[in-house]
Design brief:
The chain is of the alpha/beta class. The chain is built from 17 helices and 18 strands. Helix 2 crosses helix 3, helix 2 packs across helix 5 and helix 16 runs antiparallel to helix 17. The longest helix is centred in the C-terminal third of the chain and has 19 residues.
Length: 466
């Protein structure tokens, strides 16, 4: 191989080189390397339409600048013009793609993963995640085609790159406009900005609406992003809400497309609660077509039962916001999302946005003279849930583990035993050699017992040599 050739993919990269539920993601230096990113940028450039620029945004991770440079080199070598937005939430990239008529966009982030990881989310010209055909084409090219730096740079049409951070003003203004002139004057709120993308506008938009703010982890810090804070670590937020006597608190993940909340009593507001409460408001306004919500297989059974008792419909999809998005478009739904706090709404053209979701919840509380605690009291009672992760060999993941007859019989027995008062879900992790065993039941002891039993069977049958 010549000195100007791109190095071939390592076995670790080959194993991880697949668009998961949220793009390509992995450890920087091991999976996410400059060579891989240059190639990714080049092939993404060819997969996107031949019109307009390609936008790039990033969270605060220390590796973001290196990744931006490598992707930009690949994109411009493919002939694309690149507009660098800088630090911003993922929904800013998706929204601006549509607003400026871009060919597509890339967000550099590993979401809620630790600082050592990073990744790339890719959006098409409509602001949605790339379709499966485009993803497979990029994966195929990355695996099968080698690139030569000399040939790349001898192309006649090499694109240029520009800093376009000023475009983010449109995203900030859209956030404020989304609440339709509602105010938060003197409402005491705590924000956990997670040292990440939410530091770009989180504090600014809440203050613009008059909120009395306490801000945690409010500066961009790529070495601390998601470390003991944010939407997956709510304890610091919970303690601060209680200490401040605040009415509510909101935490975001690294790229700010998810939100989890805490009420004045320290209780958690997750994505299921958001769907139920916000959906109830839309239902009263006749703004929820067919009273339908779209959630994933992870959403709580208590939520589903309560929504159906109110005359609503709940459609479930596989895990991943792209599945929720596809189902919403197919069925004409106005609100959907994931238990993890990733909410898609017609309020912003179905782009998951944690800051927008927090603004909606806060202003709806204030508008109806309710505290978040009082509003949560009107919500559903969640079924106890037990989740067990069972490590298994990669070969057991790769084969069709769903056809293990012993597991199928055990799941059937558990579901028959619990009837309508429980459910079982087994699914493979998209990033690790793990089977996730989840059991929900009206009695926590039943959930614990069945979860332990099924996890033992998974470990026994899928770790056995055959």
């Amino acid at each position: 191989m010549g000195e100007n050739s791109i190095h071939p993919l390592s076995s670790s990269q080959e194993m991880h080189l697949k668009f998961g539920t949220d793009g390509i993601r992995g450890r920087v230096g091991k999976v996410i390397t400059a060579d891989l990113l240059l190639q990714l940028g080049y092939w993404v450039g060819h997969a996107l339409p031949n019109k307009g620029p390609v936008l790039i945004g990033k969270d605060s991770r220390s590796s973001g600048s290196m990744i931006t440079a490598a992707l930009t080199e690949g994109l411009t070598a493919s002939g694309k013009e690149v507009w660098d937005l800088g630090l911003c939430p993922t929904p800013a990239v998706a929204g601006l793609v549509k607003k400026v008529g871009a060919a597509g966009g890339l967000m550099i982030s590993a979401s809620h993963n630790p600082p050592e990881d990073n990744g790339v989310k890719v959006f098409g010209e409509d602001g949605s995640k790339l379709n499966s055909k485009q993803q497979k084409l990029i994966e195929k090219n990355l695996r099968e085609d080698s690139l030569n730096l000399n040939s790349m740079h001898s192309l006649n049409s090499v694109g240029k790159a520009y800093n376009r951070n000023e475009l983010l003003k449109h995203y900030r203004d859209a956030l404020i406009a989304s609440v339709k002139h509602q105010r938060l004057d003197k409402v005491r709120i705590v924000l956990d900005l997670c040292w990440g993308s939410a530091t770009a506008f989180g504090k600014e938009v809440f203050e613009a609406l008059g909120a009395d703010l306490t801000v945690l982890h409010g500066l961009p810090n790529g070495r601390q992003i998601n470390v003991g804070c944010g939407s997956t670590n709510l304890e610091i937020l919970r303690k601060e809400v209680l200490n401040q006597g605040a009415e509510m608190g909101f935490a975001f993940d690294g790229d700010a497309d998810r939100m989890m909340g805490v009420d004045s009593l320290g209780r958690v507001l997750d994505g299921d609660h958001v769907l139920y409460l916000w959906g109830s408001v839309l239902k009263k306004k006749n703004a929820l077509p067919k009273q339908r919500l779209v959630a994933t297989i992870m959403s709580n059974l208590g939520f589903e039962r309560a929504w159906e008792e109110r005359g609503g419909l709940l459609d479930r999809t596989q895990v991943g916001d792209q599945h929720v998005h596809a189902a919403m478009l197919a069925k004409g739904a106005a609100l959907g999302g994931e238990q993890s706090g990733h909410i898609l709404s017609a309020a912003n053209e179905f782009c998951g946005d944690g800051v927008l979701t927090a603004l909606q919840i806060a202003t709806l509380c204030n508008q109806n003279n309710l505290s978040l605690s009082e509003w949560l009291d009107q919500s559903f009672t969640a079924f106890p849930q037990k989740l067990t992760n069972v490590p298994i060999p990669s070969k057991a993941i790769n084969r069709d583990w769903k056809n293990c007859n012993e597991l199928k019989e055990a799941i059937h027995k558990a579901e028959t035993s619990m009837g309508k008062e429980g459910r079982v879900l087994l699914r493979a992790s998209g990033t690790e050699p793990i089977i996730r065993v989840m059991v929900e039941a009206i009695d926590p002891r039943i959930a614990d017992n069945w979860s332990a039993h099924l996890a033992e069977l998974v470990a026994h049958y899928l770790n056995s040599s055959d």
